[in-house]
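Sequence in, structure out. Go.
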Amino acid sequence: MTIDAFVLANAHGVEVRFISRGGRIVSIRVPDRQGGFVDVVLGYDSAGEYAADKRYFGALVGRYANRIARGRFTLDGVEYSLPINDGPNHLHGGPRGFHCREWTVEPFKRNGTEGAELRCAIAAGDDGYPGALDVRATYLLDDDNQLRVDYRAAADSPTVVNFTQHSYFNLAGEGAGDILDHELTIAAGQMTPVDQTLIPTGAICGVAGTPFDFTTPQRIGARINVPDDQLRIAGGYDHNFVLAEREPGVPSFAARLVDPRSGRALDIQTTEPGLQLYTGNRVDRGPAGKGGRPYPRHAGLALETQHFPDSPNHPHFPSTVLRPGEDFRSTTIYRFSTA
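Output:
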């Protein structure tokens, strides 16, 4: 890879590379059960390609991850209008979201563990959102092969926030085909169904007896093409799962992904209440990836820890309002191992 990146490495040879633009993770190299290392995240070979990217490969995402219906919400009696950039809706913070910002990066070492703090200041009114926002994101890679992602934020007036990390994983190796044979477990007995534009209807539905039941390990491709209105709307999985109740502020198990061929496994813990499963249903509709190789449909999947989509328009969803004096915190941990 020719791209100039910051590098985090641990004692076992695991390596995470990221760039300051968008805080994008451009490579994660982890071993298989035989000790063979490959890169397991989709991406590109140059900074210019990331600058033009429309698929959010590896990006920090905000100020509001996922969708807001028609780009509108009301906060404290005031209606706000946001840019429309996904059909009739607002997606991932808009055209000037975190994914395209230049973040200030400060690498550090703590007790032999490598990490970096990324900072970004967002002005009030940017992309239509109220409140100036000071955001910090931290990447930390330890010798247990855990990549920890911490978000902190503060605002000078009431606003809404929803942050995530948008890496696309293929544990067989980036460019190694699709992820339909990966096995996935999600700690969620419920999900939020969507309308024709992928906005939550407001319902919270049980997954038992549906293609959305990942409470036990399931091959991703086993049910992705069965007759189901929700799968038809999204062209696969592109849905928010309601994670099992967790202790506030404490990362808890959210998902486990396993590639049976290589034995690589990824366990995710988070403080967030939701997880968006996106199976790369449209990842083939874009420029070639690393090494100039086109990505096929389902070449990778995103497991986006988050609050629920369109929460500002659904008062019964967990709140995404951040007020002055409050300290927003969010943690997600990605642990790589072999099965």
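Check: The chain has one domain: 6-338. Residues 6-338 form a domain with the Beta-galactosidase; Chain A, domain 5 fold (CATH 2.70.98.10).
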